[in-house]
Amino acid sequence: MSMTPTPPTDQAVDLPTDLEPTASLAAEAGVGAGSEAQKAYRPVSRGRLVWRRLRRKPNFWIGAVILTLIVAFALFGDLLNIYELGEQDPYSFNAKPSGQHFFGTDAIGVDLYASMTEALRKSLLIGFLAAPLATVLAAFIGSLAGYLGGFVETATNWVINLLLVLPVFYVLMIISPLLSSMSWVILVVAIGLFGWMIMAQIVKNQTKSLKEREYVKAARYMGVGTLTILRRHIIPNVASLLIIDATLGVASAILAETSLSYFGLGIQAPDVSLGTLLQDGTSAAVSRPWLFLIPAGFLVTLLTAVALIGDGLRDAIDPTSEVNRA
Amino acid sequence: MTSYILRRFVNYAILTALATVFVYIAASSFFYPRRRYLGRNPPIPEDSIDSILTGYGVNDKDPVLLRTWWWIERIVTNPLPDKLGHDLSNNAVISEIFSRAGVSLRLLLMGAILAAILGVVLGVWGAVRQYKASDQIVSYTSFILISTPTFVGGVILQILATNFNNATGHQLIRFTGAYTPGITGFWPQLMDKGVHLLLPTIALALFGAAGYSRYQRAVMLDVLGSDFIRTARAKGATRTHALVKHGVRVALIPMSTYFAYNFGTLVSGSAFLEIIFSWAGMGQYGIMAVQQSDVNALAGTVCFTAILLLISSTLSEVLYAALDPRVRV
User: Fold this and answer.
1) Is A283 on the interface with B (CB under 8 A)?
2) In this structure, are residues A73 and A302 in contact, taking their beta carbons and an 8 Å threshold?
3) Distance from CA of A202 to the nearest CA of B (A)
4) Per residue in A223-258, pLDDT tens?
5) Sequence-ordered list of residues with C-beta below 8 angstroms from that of B205, at least 6 positions apart, any chain
6) Predicted model pTM
7) Which of A71-75, A167-171, B6-10, B264-268 has the lowest mean pLDDT?
8) Residue B39 needs a FRET pair 20 to 30 A away by CA distance; which of A151, B50, B174, B298 works?
9) Separation of CA A143 from chain center
10) How much is the pLDDT for B122?
11) How far apart (Å, rounded) are the C-alpha atoms in residues A194 and A177?
12) Nearest to B149 among A162, A202, A258 (CB)
């Protein structure tokens, strides 16, 4: 963690980092030196600061462009295709990718391209709903437990440890009859509810360290409320960990879904997801590689894009990590 | 400190018991082992099915809580080999666990150690050389590897190995099971086992190291930005000395918690590797138990996994408190 306190709402502290980019922007726009100094001291929100750093990160742009393409493909890809989801082409079984079937067909002539767009929609939704849920839970519970200490911490420890000794994947597998009989939204909630513990533990440990710092003590003695201290001083200090967690969380949520579906326990037919496509493709991986490699390629590309965005965000939110001062 | 560790351990032991009982209740409520014996031709009389299921202690005609109570009772009163009952193939769960745990350990130990070492080294190296070409290459590679699920990576490795075998015309890389049956002699057997370990170890080391290196790099970058590194440099420490003695040491503290948990979850998390590479380990046992609605086997697996986690969580707590003086015990 950063040793330098950077309370995000305090503009005076943020100004030095902010001065240079504003000045250079002003200079680019051809503004004179006099007004440049005035402009530099205009209050800048933390969001704009982060965005200003973020847009200089190549990782973020690579990830964002790939992710946008995949989302666009998931939403509008089927417009290019003449085959409906699940429609069988009796004239081409096991067809290789071609102009007719962009991603080929499987053993009963189902068009993989049509399944692919639908599967991506489902997996994207699951990932982007479950991961933020888990991270928000982790941040809130972890920081609160670490900051308050005492009974709250003990109780939280018990809950966290109980959930941690529970093998999540087996629990998800056991309750999978429930998941498959109800909508996939239950799957999202289940993945979120079982995914916050380790991060909460880390946040809690960091918070225990952070709350001994002078600026947190100062805020407390000035009568600032607990939730405000957490929001202003604790959470921003663990933000880089949370961002990485949310990023890898999207990956692990989609991974949990694909893994469950891979064993036939997650998304059930007639619904399709990346997991069900991979399950169908595995047996054919050597003889008809497109049935495995195309869904696998989409999955890996999607997860990589999300990871790159998370990395860009991390550098933008935590500028101290940018400079190698050693 | 000793009393703290002891208290911790007792707490975790209670948790382990609670978690196992919880899983037993959940599995008993959701599983329907009777289905195994229904719809057979000739049909099995209901009385026989009942007596078989009651023998295993999984008859759905008994209330779930009563079955749970019996299960706990058996753990307390039975002699060791029978404590966890029998699975639906009528093997004692305990002896099954012991033989399979050894298989899992052999499969995973090497890969896990390699992954941890590789991950730390690559993470620290990447942080120190942030944004240079070498860091970029390691970063992008690990991004792609993290994003590759084990079952995708394992299958791709198998496709590659098959192509390699076809290209050379020999079965050089064998990847099904732990060993080839029928090979005799110490050295040929050792060789054969090594060959079978090759792909799983590569998979585990690569995919594990990718994840570790990202965390290690993040933690190390935070440490590199801190004042005490600058102080060390200012008082005349060389760059290497400052990085290794002051940087890496601190950066390893948060990692220790992470390592301890991940090593603990290895045995349950190896299900994919074991199934893809056909090893009869613990992960495969658990998956099989769920697929066959085998309550005793699953409860045994979960109990075993929970005990492993118990040990690793205690270790990680002790490690964290011992390493970071800022956390008071």
Assistant:
1) no
2) no
3) 8
4) 998 999 999 889 888 887 787 788 778 878 888 888
5) B110, B111, B114, B115, B118
6) 0.76
7) B264-268
8) B298
9) 20
10) 92
11) 17
12) A258
CA distance B315 to A232: 33
Please list, in sequence order, all residues whose beta carbon lies within 8 angstroms of the beta carbon of residue B25, skipping any fewer than 6 positions away.
B64, B65, B68
Residues with pLDDT less than 70, chain A: 1-42, 180, 318-326
Query: pLDDT tens for residues B167-186?
Result: 888 877 888 877 888 778 88
Instruction: Give the per-residue pLDDT at A79.
Output: 80
Q: What is the pLDDT of residue B264?
A: 67
pLDDT of residue A19: 41
Residue of A nearest to B23 (CA): A171
B197: pLDDT strictly greater than 90: no
Counting Cβ atoms within 10 Å, is residue B195 exposed (0-12), middle (13-18) or buried (19+)? middle
- Closest residue in A to B240 (Cα) is A326
Contact A296 B152 (CB under 8 A): yes
Backbone angles phi, psi at B129, to 5 degrees: -105, 35
**pLDDT value for B1:** 64
Write out residues 284-323 of A within 8 Å (CB-CB) of B.
285-286, 289, 292, 296, 299-304, 306-308, 311, 314, 318, 320-323
CB contact under 8 A, B290 and A170: yes
Distance CA B71, CA B85 (A): 8
Interface contact A187, partner B, CB < 8 A: no
- Amino acid B295 reads V
B65: its two tokens:
């809580």
Unique residue bearing structure tokens 């590659």: B160
Predicted local confidence at residue B218, as pLDDT: 82
Please give the pLDDT value at position A42. 67
Cβ contact B12–A302 (<8 Å): no
Q: Output the CA torsion sign for B193, B199, B205, B211.
A: negative
CB atoms within 10 A of CB B274: 25
| CB contact B10 to A (< 8 Å) | no
Q: How far is A44 from chain B (nearest CA, A)?
A: 24
Length, in residues, of chain A? 326
> Scanning the structure block, which residue is given the tokens 């089927």?
A78
Give residue-wise pLDDT tens across range B104-138.
Answer: 888 888 888 899 999 999 999 988 888 888 888 98
Distance CA A302, CA A125 (A): 12
Q: Can you read off the two tokens belonging to residue B321?
A: 């408190």
Contact A324 B224 (CB under 8 A): yes
Residue A264, CB half-sphere, CA atoms under 13 Å: how many? Answer: 8
Q: Flag if A175 and B26 touch (Cβ within 8 Å).
A: yes
Q: Does A1 touch chain B (CB under 8 A)?
A: yes
- Whether residues A282 and B225 touch (CB distance < 8 A) is answered with no
Mutation for B interface: A4, A66, A165, most B CBs within 10 A: A165
